[in-house]
Amino acid sequence: MRWFNRKKDTMAGSLRIIIGLGNPGSKYDRTRHNIGFEAVDAVAERIGATWKTKGQSLIAEGRWRGRSVLLAKPQTWMNRSGLAVEELLRKHRVTPQDILVLVDDIHLDPGVIRIRQKGGTGGHNGLDDIIDWLDTNDFPRLRFGVGKDFGQGQQADYVLDVFSDEERTVVDPSLERARDAALTFVTDGIVTAMNRFNG
């Protein structure tokens, strides 16, 4: 994967890829673990892009304020997300710094978003698999809080369950913030997105 190390193209119009993580299938719709899918759906709606299957992902293509945007929802199951992400980077010849991964995070309260340039997994299997496939943790990610109101041994059931109505009152507005943060990354870069939307 030496091509990942090429000098990043910063010219206007260069591609940015926004990747939402989740599990495929209607049974997982609106679950906590699929908030990445919901967030990237919000981006697709904002830029008027429609979904189609290409390779290992659902893909939507569009432009936002002069920049090319590719949206993706890997269909490889959450724990195998790296396979689809590596395919996207290789096919479109972009670096890990040109992507933004939208992912659920149990360590943040519901609706809280945090943007980072790089980092660890926080115990998230989807991020872990991406790091394994790309052989780097140096890629931007937006972590969307889903809370951790579960007992010992109940984490899997919790993240695969839907948000409560009360949680939705904070989650739904935060989806708009996540959408706007992702589009800020597209136009202005990760540092501006962090400064504008963290905290």
Distance between the termini: 35 Å
Q: Profile the largest sheet.
A: 7 strands, mixed
CATH architecture: 3-Layer(aba) Sandwich
* Shape designation: globular
Briefly, what CATH class?
Answer: Alpha Beta
- Count up the helices: 6
Task: Kindly report the CATH topology.
Answer: Rossmann fold
How many structural domains can be distinguished in the coordinates?
1
Short description:
The protein is an alpha/beta fold and 199 residues long.
Commentary on this structure:
- The chain has 199 residues and is α/β, with parallel strands linked by helices.
- The protein has one domain: Rossmann fold (3-Layer(aba) Sandwich), CATH 3.40.50.
- It is built from 6 helices and 7 strands.
SSE layout:
Layout: E1 16-20, H1 35-47, E2 52-54, E3 57-64, E4 67-74, H2 81-92, E5 99-105, E6 113-116, H3 125-134, E7 141-145, H4 155-159, H5 165-188, H6 190-197
Parallel strand pairs: 1-4, 1-5, 5-7
Antiparallel strand pairs: 2-3, 3-4, 6-7
Helix pairs in contact: 1-5, 2-3, 5-6
Question: Which descriptors apply to this entry?
Answer:
seven-stranded mixed sheet, alpha/beta
